[in-house]
Amino acid sequence: MSAPFTQPTHADILSAAARIAPHAHVTPVLQARSLDDAAGCALAFKAESMQRGGAFKFRGACNAVYSLEATIAARGVVTHSSGNHGGALALAAKLRSLPCHVVVPEGAVRSKLAAIEAHGAVLHRCAPTIAAREAMCAQVQRDTGADLVHPYADARVIAGQGTAVLELLHARTLDAVVVPVGGGGLASGTAIALAAIAPQTALFLAEPAGAAETLLSLQRGERVTDFTPDTICDGLRGTLGEPNFDILRAHGAEVIAVEDDATRAAMRLLFQRAKLLVEPSSAIALAAVLAQPARFAGKRVGVVLTGGNVDPDALPW
Amino acid sequence: MSAPFTQPTHADILSAAARIAPHAHVTPVLQARSLDDAAGCALAFKAESMQRGGAFKFRGACNAVYSLEATIAARGVVTHSSGNHGGALALAAKLRSLPCHVVVPEGAVRSKLAAIEAHGAVLHRCAPTIAAREAMCAQVQRDTGADLVHPYADARVIAGQGTAVLELLHARTLDAVVVPVGGGGLASGTAIALAAIAPQTALFLAEPAGAAETLLSLQRGERVTDFTPDTICDGLRGTLGEPNFDILRAHGAEVIAVEDDATRAAMRLLFQRAKLLVEPSSAIALAAVLAQPARFAGKRVGVVLTGGNVDPDALPW
């Protein structure tokens, strides 16, 4: 049982910022001159890899968990997630002392599952299809009465994710912002915030070429859901959510499709030059800038490095 | 030909801060709550790994290069270095368009040599002993008239390194500061700055157990120079400089000797929890805190993460 979806507004993002402030980090905005030289533009990295739980996902999860009325909250929360959202929800629930259930598809990254369990959530394994995930979620909801906190098609989550770009624009004036797009929670929250506070700042979405259904969906004007993702970016294999599609279409965000090789190279560059450990699903945003230099030449470009939950024994090079 | 050594003062550190400000980064001060939990204290990481050239060494090198009068500067600069100082001096010389010579011992880290060459310095290879390094340096000085910028026994370098803790204390009030010690440039610059602006803040020096001659030297009250370093910390294999010894002895810094296994574990922790890539020679400072928890319990502890120049293909785990 979910409430009907109402698009979050900029006011909801501001409320989210206030709600999560006691719990979330204001993450640093970092620069690396040698990367500016490589990209031909002035890059500002919003290091959400240093957010609690190691990813921006804590913003949305925390906003959702602390939005719940006490009686509903007591029944706990549930979600399905291949990784960072699950860990973030588990952490947020632990902070509020609520039960948390996470439905995880087979094949999820081991270190991310360990993080979910470390925060005391109950894992429910299922087949790696969206149908299996949703069915298992519904079952847990029936069994426990837990509130569903969808990883991206949830207004509270979208509002929470929108807080990252508020902080970024508080620190820097920018001509463009680049964020990765998977389910579209961060992308749509960012679009709403930018429209309200910096309408002249262009929004670009970096999407794996092997899972570029957001690009297709926005081109066709209708949501494409029938595709098989093939990408190293484990956080971006999901399908763009329906409300997320509506928000992104309305805001005119532009998608840049990026090959995995370029993403791998960007991840290594961030490692060598900026000394930052980020996931492939984050490095893709820098890769998008490097892939289309003419588009960003001489500009001030904000790049959201969404997460850093990488297994140190399985670096992709 | 070097000028006789005069100990730098706090005023020299302030001058260095002003001199390097147009060129050096004010590096971020970062936190990671899960590391605070692990350490039992509030850690503030000064991320000199994000300094230009990837290490704090740029501060001292830049101060030295920009201190030179034009006629002397035109003859260039020379140093001996197994890595980061050489790269830093090469970068600083390039910024001022001066020739730069770097004497490097065999066995130095490959990626650090590549960085020195990438900045256009001339490499001079020699045997890996301090005598061979100094002889080759003297030869280059005779041949070129270049000014020697010693990696740590140089007042300009010590003053430059002292600027890092100024920034750290500007950002945070601290009960203790922990820095790694090798030749002692950073350690002695930090000691001078702390004595002037935060005399109540304790200074701890993290030193590899396999190269713990600073510990011995301060215990004995005389400089120990006869030892063979055996440590993963390639930046800390050098011998504490004579002026550095005098400064550290006068300021009463305390040394914590750290085993390489603890340093390796701390490097991995910073990687996994803080998403930061640092060298073993930097991770040792966190390892020192974790090794002696009683000493730091409940305190506000600044840790200087001195550099991040690690070969991504040769992570030590």
TrEMBL record, chains A, B:
Keywords: Lyase, Magnesium, Pyridoxal phosphate. Residues 21-307 form the Tryptophan synthase beta chain-like PALP domain. The keyword Magnesium applies. GO terms for molecular function: ATP binding; L-serine ammonia-lyase activity; magnesium ion binding; pyridoxal phosphate binding; serine racemase activity; threonine racemase activity. InterPro entries: Ser/Thr_deHydtase_PyrdxlP-BS (IPR000634), TrpB-like_PALP (IPR001926), TrpB-like_PALP_sf (IPR036052). PROSITE patterns: DEHYDRATASE_SER_THR. Its cofactor is Ca(2+); pyridoxal 5'-phosphate; Mg(2+); Mn(2+). One of its GO terms (biological process) is D-serine biosynthetic process. It comes from the Bacteria. Belongs to the serine/threonine dehydratase family. This is Pyridoxal-phosphate dependent enzyme.
